[in-house]
Amino acid sequence: MGMVRESQFHVLAVDDSHLDRKMIERLLQKSSCQVTTVDTGSKALEFLGLRESNDPNALETHQQEVEINLIITDYCMPGMTGYDLLKKVKESAAFRSIPVVIMSSENVPARISRCLEEGAEEFFLKPVKLADVTKLKPHMMKTKLKKEGEKPSEEENATLKPEESLVVEMILPLNQELELEQKEPMLSSNKRKAMEEVISADRSRPKYNDITTSA
Amino acid sequence: MNTVVAQLQRQFQDYLVSLYQQGFLDNQFTELRKLQDEGTPDFVAEVVSLFFDDCSKLINSMSRSLERPENVDFKQVDSGVHQLKGSSSSVGARRVKNVCISFKECCDVQNREGCLRCLQQVDYEYKMLKTKLQDLFNLEQQIVQAGGAIPQVNIN
Predict the structure, then answer these.
(1) Could you say which DSSP state residue B25 is in?
(2) A-interface mutation test, from B90, B91, B104, most A Cβ less than 10 A away
(3) What's the total number of domains in chain B?
(4) Is B88 contained in some domain?
(5) Which of A4, A11, A52, B64 would you call most buried, defined as having the most Cβ atoms within 10 angstroms of its Cβ?
(6) Can you tell me the distance from the alpha carbon of B111 to that of B102, in angstroms, rounded to the nearest whole number?
(7) Which residue of A has its CA nearest to B91?
(8) What is the ipTM of this complex?
């Protein structure tokens, strides 16, 4: 039986406004997340363990400090904007799998599209509400699932006797439940593929939050 | 006594509702209250306090930028208004936020006189709200001291 453990998610929140940092921190805590807040994009990268080497175009990965399940960042920040931070995260081999969410007080459709195209999972209009934060869980679940799915080869090497039938119940994000009842043995690699298919179908849809286009 | 608590709770409820009705607060203040619980009983007061500190600081710096007619730093003023609009929006300070909208318009067309009027208005509004919320928090304190619970108030 493969079940996803409900251990606490750790979110990295980035915002130059002290008040907004306090708000987002409380919102996330109220949703049972562990939170780290920083006030600049550079500090966010530092926290992740990305530091700039002598080559300004390359970001070296030093030891990964902490496991982060989601980054939520303000768009408008002095120096490195939320968009810049998003790009740097998505360009990094080590961290591109971390879901990134952008927040902004301004409803600019072009800005929203740009962020989503760059790989942001969601774009929240400020002020962010509890209802918005609950939308984050599925994104964070994906990273945990992926990690569990990537468990080492011991599973692949295990041989199943032909007579054995498997009943596998998996708990997937967005309350999708997949019940697989087999008469024949199923190799664990197929199981992983099925999971990945479900996940990728969800990723292709861009998500919006309260978007109104101004004429 | 039970009736004392009930009376205070009714007073609190009526006062809070009146703040919404008079446009001082909007739905975001309700959202803010949702974030407060037994583990974080001072959350709203802390956030609101941060907001008023922001107001004071930003109004001062914008005032300095607008001081000399021949040398107004509209970029700085715009930045200040942006921050103020953001903060007021985050806490549900409706009137303050609305003044910020007008303020931004004056800034966009570099209307110094208009900016000064808006600055004065925003100063007035935040101070007014500060007094009102102080009264609200005092009522809350009285309820707690009398052994009662703060009522959940639903605003429609």
Answers:
(1) B
(2) B90
(3) 1
(4) yes
(5) A11
(6) 11
(7) A127
(8) 0.92
